[in-house]
């Protein structure tokens, strides 16, 4: 999943970005409102973390601008401890949640997971597809009760497919959600990682979960559909 951080305090932005990347998220960063608005309008994200106090374009104006352009990406506002009116105005402007600085990083993670689930048909923290279980909080994966060890990139791909279970996702969608702009990608990198997942999840099972939809993309499909 892809997160956009719009925060002018570079040390804080670095800490958030590093922590999110360690959790397997793809993270883009902007350090002023003008750059942040451009990123929000041109690069798809699953969640935006938005500071209110920004140079060039303040956070609330930025939020209003992107909502007027029908950008519905969930937004978590970062606010000062005593900025109650900013919190109220932010929620009224279209923010989905807010955190008061300083905050506990684990709480930020929990709020991000909640917003991602809210946008998906999957509402539970543990995603179950037939005998496959994916714990989105701990990143533990099992199939038929047997633990499956995945790399960070393999997990990110599986989680994205799982949030879109029984729906086709294109190669372009996958690249936009699990690779950053600096990634050195071969043209067949998505196919390579799909094959990695198949070897770990489907190889020893009669019922296959990962399906190729010719000319369209891939699907993580349950046996009930």
What does the model show?
The protein has 225 residues and is an alpha/beta fold. Helix 2 packs parallel to helix 3 and helix 3 (59-68) packs parallel to helix 4. Strands 2-1-3-4-5 form a five-stranded parallel beta sheet, with helices on both faces. It has a four-stranded antiparallel beta sheet with strand order 6-7-8-9, with helices on one face. It is built from eight helices and eleven strands. It has two domains: 2-119, Rossmann fold (3-Layer(aba) Sandwich), CATH 3.40.50.2300; 126-220, Orthogonal Bundle (Arc Repressor Mutant, subunit A). The relative contact order is 0.12.
Can I get a quick summary?
This protein is of the alpha/beta class and 225 residues long.
Shape: elongated
Q: Which structural class matches the secondary elements?
A: alpha/beta
Enter the CATH topology name of the largest domain: Rossmann fold
Tell me what the CATH architecture of the largest domain is.
Answer: 3-Layer(aba) Sandwich
Q: Superfamily at the CATH H level of the largest domain? A: Response regulator
Give the tally of β-strands.
11
Q: Report the order of strands and helices.
A: EHEHEHEHEHEEEEHHHEE
What percent of residues adopt helix (DSSP H or I)? 40-55%
User: What is the first-to-last residue Cα distance?
Assistant: 25 Å
Strand order of the largest sheet: 2-1-3-4-5
Reading off the top of the CATH hierarchy, the class of the largest domain is best stated as Alpha Beta
């Amino acid at each position: 999943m892809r997160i956009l951080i719009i925060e002018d305090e570079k040390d804080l932005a670095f800490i958030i970005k590093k922590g999110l990347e360690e959790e397997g998220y793809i993270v883009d960063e902007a350090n002023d409102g003008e750059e942040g608005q451009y990123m929000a309008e041109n690069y798809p994200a699953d969640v935006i973390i938005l500071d209110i106090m920004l140079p060039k374009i303040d956070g609330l104006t930025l939020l209003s601008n992107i909502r007027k352009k029908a950008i519905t990406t969930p937004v978590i506002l970062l606010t000062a401890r005593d900025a109650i009116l900013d919190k109220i105005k932010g929620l009224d402007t279209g923010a989905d949640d807010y955190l008061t600085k300083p905050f506990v990083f684990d709480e930020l993670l929990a709020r991000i997971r909640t917003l991602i689930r809210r946008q998906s048909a999957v509402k539970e923290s543990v995603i179950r597809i037939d005998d496959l279980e994916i714990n989105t909080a701990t990143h533990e994966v099992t199939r038929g009760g047997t633990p499956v060890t995945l790399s960070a990139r393999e997990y990110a791909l599986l989680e994205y497919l799982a949030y879109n279970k029984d729906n086709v996702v294109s190669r372009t969608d996958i690249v936009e959600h699990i690779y950053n702009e600096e990634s050195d990608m071969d043209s067949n990198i998505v196919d390579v990682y799909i094959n990695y997942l198949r070897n770990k999840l489907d190889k020893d099972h009669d019922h296959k979960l990962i399906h190729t939809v010719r000319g369209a993309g891939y699907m993580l499909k349950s046996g009930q559909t």
